[in-house]
Amino acid sequence: MTVTLRSLETAVPPTILVQSEARDVFAAQPGLTRLGQRLVRTCFDSAAIDTRHTSVAELCVGFLGDTKVFYDADTGFLLSPSTKVRNELFTSESTKLFIEAASKALAACDGIAAADVTHVITVSCTGFFNPGPDYKIVRALGLAPSVQRYHLGFMGCYAAFPALRAAKAFCDAQPDAVVLVVSAELCSLHVRTSNNPDTIMGSSLFADGAAAAVVTARDLPTAQTVIELDHFETVLTPVGEDSMAWNIGDEGFEMVLDSYVPHIIDDHIVGALAPLLAHEPGLGAGPFADIPHWAIHPGGRSILDKVEAKLGLSAQQLIPARETLRNYGNMSSATVMFVLKHILDLPAAEARENICAMAFGPGLTVETGLFTKVSPAVQRTLVAAGQAVDSVNA
């Protein structure tokens, strides 16, 4: 029995932050030291990000409204709303993204209707409310009230992997199951001005977005390219517990993102991949670059640089991750789903192509997945070509 991700869709809020404009706003804040100003410019300019999306419309330089909760356009000052105020915006705005992404994924899945969904798994680490996003999705999409609902909260950037792993487990245990997995993160709610390097780094990277997937083991005919979910593994690095963390403060959530994280990944990424590739000895025996696709969570440019160099990957193999970072920034748990979507939409060279996926989060936790991209269109082309050859030979 094969568990398959049959559709994958994304959603982002309409407000776009241009990186250079955001840099200038953060660099002009009162209270910044000269070192703080230099750090702001360095972090924003070296992030390899052009644009990000935010649910906080007033953060956009061109915002024309009168709202002054996060940013005062008259003075150019960033404000400091309470965690309660930030979470109230999360409740309203994340609900829109959860529902939009889930609706798009369900609509894009051939052979599956709302009545078929048996499980809903939602993911977020940037806010809380109850009844939660799992409930809102069931009501908005008209799913059966008996749908089993699960929410993975506050896990961080790697949380899409536990969600997909749980979806696979549900389908392995119940072959007729249809699982809707939805991640939505509003990281920009928690930005603030500071001289703290971790805070500055987070402000230069984080953004808002959502992604949703339909996972099932049902044998459904489809003309769509799909992804088979083969294996998952979790590894904790022996160091790094204090290097990446996510805490709740009085004025929003507080990110700890030490500059040493890329070095930890550089030291331990090969060992972290070993348990995953042990499932497929043929893949693990050759160079890492022999695996055609790499869905790497773009936690930052330096992380991608370290992974590319350490594993000997080509620049082409990093394009899905780097383009996601460039166009959307780091959307925490949703980001690797955007990378997978990029890979899913690429023209297929073979009917079946391996994907190695990974994400990093607090702990330091390394979550990995080994998947197979399956293209029915390529398969049909190969079959037709084979039939033509057989006809000529006859």
Annotated CATH topology of the largest domain = Peroxisomal Thiolase, Chain A, domain 1
- Give the strand order of the largest sheet, numbering strands 1, 2, ... along the chain: 7-6-8-9-1-10-15-14-13
Q: How much is the radius of gyration in Å?
A: 22 Å
Total count of helical runs of at least 4 residues = 12
Task: Provide the low-confidence segments as ranges.
Answer: 385-392
| Helix content range | 25-40%
Q: What spatial form do the alpha-carbon principal axes imply?
A: globular
State the major sheet: 9 strands, mixed
Tally of strands: 15
CATH architecture of the largest domain: 3-Layer(aba) Sandwich
Mean pLDDT reading? 93
Keywords:
394 residues, alpha+beta, Peroxisomal Thiolase, Chain A, domain 1, 2 domains, nine-stranded mixed β-sheet, 12 helices, 15 strands, disordered C terminus
Protein architecture, described:
By secondary structure, the protein is of the alpha+beta class. The chain folds into 2 domains: 4-216, Thiolase/Chalcone synthase (Peroxisomal Thiolase, Chain A, domain 1, 3-Layer(aba) Sandwich), CATH 3.40.47; 226-379, 3-Layer(aba) Sandwich (Peroxisomal Thiolase, Chain A, domain 1), CATH 3.40.47. The chain has 12 helices and 15 strands. The strands form 4 sheets. The chain has a 9-stranded mixed beta sheet with strand order 7-6-8-9-1-10-15-14-13, with helices on both faces. A hairpin with a 3-residue loop joins strand 14 (352-361) and strand 15 (365-374). Helix 1 packs antiparallel against helix 2 (34-45). Residues 385-392 have low confidence and may be disordered.
